[in-house]
Specification:
By secondary structure, the chain is α/β, with parallel strands linked by helices. It is 43% helix and 10% strand. The two termini are 14 Å apart.
């Protein structure tokens, strides 16, 4: 069985930026805390998983199809801090030094890239999706594991753990989010429907579609709200659903991990980072 790592670029970049002080700078004063944190996370994952393939998926700066469906999607998120913006090109240099494909596509998010690549991975390949975004839990299967990085121990989500933590299986995560909403993406959800109610309803009816068909049977104001907001519920599910068939242009073989240590070392020296280069294989 081959192993493939697919990293959510900006998820890990933001984690690195806010996890390390901005006092980390190179000699010319350039802040490199996110660069250092990203490098350490990347190389730690390489050592832990010893991947045969490695890709980095990234959000594209253009609006996504979700913004066209719902203009308020993610609109409350603050702009990227300037101290981080100046490090993005340097992080891309780190990725390039390992000859790792950096994949993004106009109109889609990194989640959609990860969903597509893991969906079309060769049959003998297990994919590990590394992200702090729990939307990706819907992608978990027997051949796909979501890895949430942690400084002490990375947390691995299998289908059983998703069910244990959320109360629903991976394939029902979009249905669940349609009901309860998602504040991080500015998806409102159905008023008065909390996690316990959503899990109970989905257990009873199996899916959002069946739930909506039987909305008149649901008790209380929460049930009335769902009956009155059926179109909204369908929209929220569409917003929460990760695409798995976007037209990515990256050849699978391009992700086979192979790099020249001297290229990585040269990049680290230019960035002012003193760190070991991982040995793979």
């Amino acid at each position: 069985m081959s192993t493939c790592l697919i990293l959510d670029c900006f998820s890990l970049v933001y984690r690195s930026f806010f996890g390390l002080p901005t006092s980390i700078r190179r000699q010319d004063g350039q802040i490199i805390n996110a660069v250092l944190g990203f490098y350490n996370t990347l190389t730690s994952l390489m050592r832990q998983f010893q991947p045969d393939y490695l890709f980095v998926a990234s959000d594209h700066p253009s609006p996504t199809f979700r913004h066209e469906l719902f203009p308020a999607y993610k609109e409350h998120r603050p702009p990227m801090p300037e101290e981080l913006r100046g490090q993005i090109e340097l992080i891309e240099e780190v990725i390039a030094s390992f000859s790792i494909p950096l994949v993004s596509l106009a109109g889609y998010e990194a989640d959609d890239i990860m969903g597509t690549m893991s969906h079309y991975a060769p049959a003998d390949t297990h994919c590990y999706l590394v992200t702090t975004d729990r939307d990706a839990l819907q992608l978990v299967s027997e051949r796909v594991t979501v890895v949430v990085p942690n400084s002490r121990a990375n947390k691995l989500f299998t289908p059983e753990i998703v069910r244990y933590e959320l109360g629903v299986p991976p394939e029902r995560v979009p249905d669940y989010k349609a009901l309860v909403g998602d504040s991080s993406d500015n998806i409102p959800g159905i008023p008065l429907v909390g996690p316990k109610t959503a899990v109970r309803w989905l257990d009873m009816f199996g899916s959002l579609d069946e739930l909506i068909k039987n909305a008149d049977l649901l008790p209380g104001k929460a049930g009335q709200n769902l009956a009155q907001q059926q179109e909204e519920a369908h929209l929220y599910r569409e917003l929460a659903t990760i695409e798995r068939s976007v037209p990515t242009y990256c050849c699978w073989q391009a992700g086979r991990l192979a790099f020249a240590e001297e290229d990585v070392r040269r990049t680290l020296d230019s960035l002012g980072i003193r760190a070991a280069v991982p040995e793979i294989g």
